[in-house]
Amino acid sequence: LPLGLEFYRRPDFFFEHAAEAFVFNEQVGGGSPWLAILRHAGRVIGMFNWRGDLDWTHNVPGRPVFDPLMSIPFLMGVVIWARRLYNADDPDPDALALLGLWVVVMLFPSILSNDAPDFSRTLPTHPALFVAAGLGLTWIWTHSWPLNVTMPQWLGAATACAVLVISGGWTFYDYFVAFPQNQELYYIYDVDKQDALEFLHPMAADHQVYLSQLWAGHASVAFMLGDYGFKSLDTSDTIVLPPPGTGAVYAFPAEQQERAEFMATALNAGAVQTTVDPYGKPLLAIVRVDAPRLDQWPANLAPQQVNLANFEEAPTLLGMSANRLGQSDENALTLYWRADAATLRDLTSFIHLIDANGSRVGQMDKAPGNGSYRTPYWAPGERVIDAYIPHVSEPCAVGENVRVIVGWYELAANGLRRPRLDTFGDTALAGEMQLPVRAYPHAELAPQIRLEEQGVDSIPINLWGYTLHEADLQAGAPILLDLFWQKSMAQADEAATSAVEARLRLQTQDTGFNIWNGVVNQPATWRMDEAVCQRLRLRLPNEITAGSYELSLTTIDAVSGDEAQSKIGALTLQPSLRNYSLPTPLTPANALFGALVGQPEIALAGIQIGEQPPNEHTLPVTLVWQAQSAPTNSYTVFVHLVDELGQIVSQSDALPAGGYATNQWAPGEVILDPHQLKLPDDLKS
Known about the structure:
5-stranded mixed β-sheet, 6-stranded antiparallel β-sheet, 5 domains, 30% strand, 15 helices, Immunoglobulin-like
């Protein structure tokens, strides 16, 4: 019933293969299905005595159902069968008719399909066909030879027995001696995979064996794998290190020799061990690493940025590298995880790429090992090194430094994220990386202003368009400008262009300021129908005065010195409203914060605690910040009120000063950041 319901829901499961093999399919019948049926019928009839199935998976190629000796009683039996059907006095005409119909009907699957005769399709006919052979042998047993009536009566029985013995021995030799020795069968029936598992089995005593997913996903291997205690792994993006004190064996089929060589290099494991099968062909490529060498990170695989983060019922983050499993790849990053305990939940990891504004500009969700090494299979102490190639959704983020935020979620629980154990929240900072520069088709880019027919052909790169993001323009304020570059027609056939420098300038009739000098970003490959977005995060000079300015861009060929100028637009600067004086009274704090050790960006100069409003159970707190430099990221402030036991009784999380992002602060600027802490009713005064 369940199988019938499945076929009802998915009829293609039932009919798809039959339609492909059907003789009326032009690829099978060759446009003449009836002629094909006649040919197939002749081949199927001939399979009994003349030539059988040619496929090694079904038969000794070409061997008929009955060997030449047994064919004699079989043909005799067919004649006897036919005569008995027309004998009115026969005691079993109905049974013989049913068996005959059985044979005819069950031959049609092979007659009406490709590759006739196919023993796998005619197999149901064999029990009935043996009746014919039995009828012939019975006749020989019970009749003396008609050509020599002087022969003894026992000769018929002896002849039948001799036929059975000789034919049986012949068949035994064909199918149990010659057939198994065929080299092709060794691979067709996956004996090579069984031999490989048997070869690896002794190594599992003191090593964890990780078998390549290419073989582990094979049905025969998957069926046998549980008896050996091996684990399977897709090593294209993932390396698993066993628990401390345990060695590792990484086994690959011979066709993955290059993968084995990469693994040996990554783990500093020396030469790859190659085993052969009984026919001398390569069977396995094995990388074996003993326990002491795996207790520490291999030199090529150590994380470049160490950041420890513990999650509840999820693997622990150990760090990150801006490469792909130790190999240079600017599009990839590698995360380092560890199972501190058995994980029952089937979890998916996620990474978010966060720019300086706190915006998500890229992401990737991934089951460990591309789904081949899901978290319930991790053993406590195992370290999983997993590579990611995130999708960058913001074309203008290329070339920028971004923060990599990671975490875990359970897809089966509606994407519920796993919380942190060591702090609040459900994400962790894995590290930072620079996104690679790449070009996008014009259709995927939308500059605010498109520039037509600007530029000079002698300069290999011209400005195609720009977007000037809205901002509060005053002295020291940040400016976000996206420049879109394209190759000039003169460079259409060039694989690469020479270096191009650019300069941005604010100009009035009386004075001017250079606000950026730099080099135009260029990708590794760049077509004529593509453009590159270069995002500039600039700051207006602190000494600039209010008024109207013209923003212009000059591009300069670093080789020829040729220049081209593009007008970006007019900017109106407002008088500065920034505060640079600390308020009084102030409780000093003198705490420093910053992205890099020794280079603080922000100082908490002090705290002001206001009076509690009447009839309100809140505590007003004002944090007084002072920018030590120009912060590059937008940070969120959290304020915790704790009791005498260190337990949090109230908190506030928000952008500072009601949304005044930290990356807009100017060096020396003072920011007043008020917070209202709601006090619990049972809080002691």
